[in-house]
Amino acid sequence: MSFPAQSTSPSPDRTTWRLPQLEHWVIVPMIVILAIGTLGRIVSFTPQIGAAESQVLAALEPVRSSMMLAAAGFVHGAFTAPMIFALIAALTAWLVVVRRSARDAAGFAVTAVVATALCFMLQQVVGRPAPVIPGESLTAAETAASMPAGAVAGALVITLALLVSARQHAKALVVLAVGGSVSLVVAAATLITSSAYFVDIAAALPVAWAGVALGCGVANRAVPAMAYRFGWDLNEAERKINYRNPDRSVAYADAYADAQHAGETAGRGAVAVDGRHDADGPITEEIPVIRHDAA
Fold first, then answer.
1. Do residues 102 and 232 lie in contact, with contact meaning Cβ atoms separated by under 8 Å?
2. At 278, which helix (H) or strand (E)?
3. What is the DSSP secondary-structure string of 173-206?
4. Global pTM?
5. pLDDT per position as a tens digit, 78-107
6. Contact, 239 vs 51, CB < 8 A?
7. How far is CA 70 from CA 37, 47, 56, 66, 77, in A?
8. What's the rounded Cα separation, in Å, for the pair 91 and 110?
9. Torsion-angle region of residue 82: left (phi > 0), alpha (psi -120 to 50) or beta?
């Protein structure tokens, strides 16, 4: 007797969508984060390191013209925490419209949000005071959040998240070139405005990488479940069917059980009739035809 094929997965996926992922995608990023956090705490309690880095910032004083400071302040302000999340939302919408792939857009969004949140959480844990420029004042939030440099980490996170979601080699090279250039400009603007020390900017790269590595692992588990739930892998007709009966696995299991019951009653010469009745008589249901293999 031949039986219908069954899926062993509770959420079968019709595509091979997957972001690149480390084998130990939780442990390795956590080791990197712990190492950077420990380094940040050591640097925070070592005044000699801060004094040496202040000399590096002071050496940039000749290039700090009023026009240069205005341009650097604009670039750095474009990558503050609220602006980074707004940029992630805008790029997600752009991916939906241009790429026409909800999976790629969702994968980028999940990866970028997880990595950005991790970077800013590490900032608060380390709590290294940002450099104070004589004659200027910094808010308490800016003073307590310097390592890693938030603006640089945000630019790197967006670049790496777009890079891992790119499907073609040529597009990946373009993303890497443009994103790398933007990240360098943001790093230079951060130094010119004295918003962070050089070590803080250098620490942004491994932290951003660790955040994206962790975000890819989260996205590889969240996006297929979202695609199955919202029917991103279905055409329009299948979406309507899925909307009426979202739990397709249960419905299929019921149909298979009915088919087995029908096969048993057919062997005894019985007629498969539903037990329910209404005013017009018993209600019968069509059951799958079970064909016996030829001997």
1. yes
2. strand 277-278
3. HHHHHHHHHHHHHHHHHHHHTT-S-HHHHHHHHH
4. 0.69
5. 888 889 999 999 999 988 888 777 888 889
6. no
7. 32, 30, 20, 6, 10
8. 12
9. alpha
